Input
Amino acid sequence: MTAILAGASFRTGMMMITCVPTGRRTGTSDPQPAPKPQEATPGMTGPTVTNAASTARALFHTAPRCVEIREVPAPRVVGGEVLVRTLCSGISGGTERLVYRGEVPADLALDDTIDALGGTFSYPFAYGYACVGEVIESGQPVFAFHPHQDLFAARVADLIPLPAVDPASATLLPLVETALQVTLDAGTGYRDRVVVLGAGVLGLLTTLLLHRAGWRPLLVEPLAWRRELAGRVGAIAVAPEDLADEKVPLVIDASGNPDAPAMALSMLAHEGTLLIASWFGTKPVVLPLGGAFHRRRLTIRSSQVSTVPARLSGTWTRSRRQRETVELLAELPLAELCTHVFAFGHAAEAFRAVDEGIPGLMHAVLDYDRSAAGDM
Output
């Protein structure tokens, strides 16, 4: 971790509230180590434990660029469930930034594939999908696709057991799995050049996995500090103006920039493919689909992690992809990407930092132990 941020916040009774669309960070503290990983213990079930707490704390989006930490009734387990105490949760710099800005359709389902994400993007709603914690009954470290909340009940079948890995780094599991799916969607290309647009977390992880798969990936990123970080973890990155004038069979857009797909089409060789990993929300994307697009027989495809495409169903399932992702947690340089850690009580500051794209921030992590210790 390169930064631990305490931040400023406002208290109203028992609720942490903020609704400030702009503004810089107001305070920092000396770097602290991430929470130590717990040793894995076999199984996640155990004797029934009565939850002594009467409430839990959960983060809600209440308006564009407004989040609140609210007290909610303490979860009670039913058959097949266990209680999970959250250690860390991650804020996605792609999807969650769009959600924070209000740039998603209000009537869109939060996620049809995750039980913990019911309802739509109509305010107020809880959202998030990267909680790392421990099962209270057994101490088993687990990952859960669950909104930001300090204590929750989850079905054992929905939890992903984790090895002894850094909890903050493990919050990147969804992005590692997405990068793996993008790599699978890219197909085979031994020593073929592939251009990846955007050196955010997804673009960088995808580049590293493409290299493992035999491609010759090249990252294109306008921010110098991102290019430098990419170089430190083993990726090759160039500025857009330094991109060689060569046509490539595949371009992957992971930038989140609505102007990127149009630029990508001009980079493709005859019968080349543009693979779009970005989700643009409500932002319009203009594509030049005139003579050059048709004459070169170009293809535009999307990549999405919620499903495994039919063409891969003979060898890949969601469970296999998940297992491979867990193994990758210890193999990829995830700790270097978890650049900023915020106490859960200062989640509003964390979202502002992600929204503003402050220099040096790759992945923001919420630390629940710091909040529990009174750092609010």
In short: The radius of gyration is 21 Å. The first strand starts at residue 4 and ends at 5. The mean pLDDT is 87.
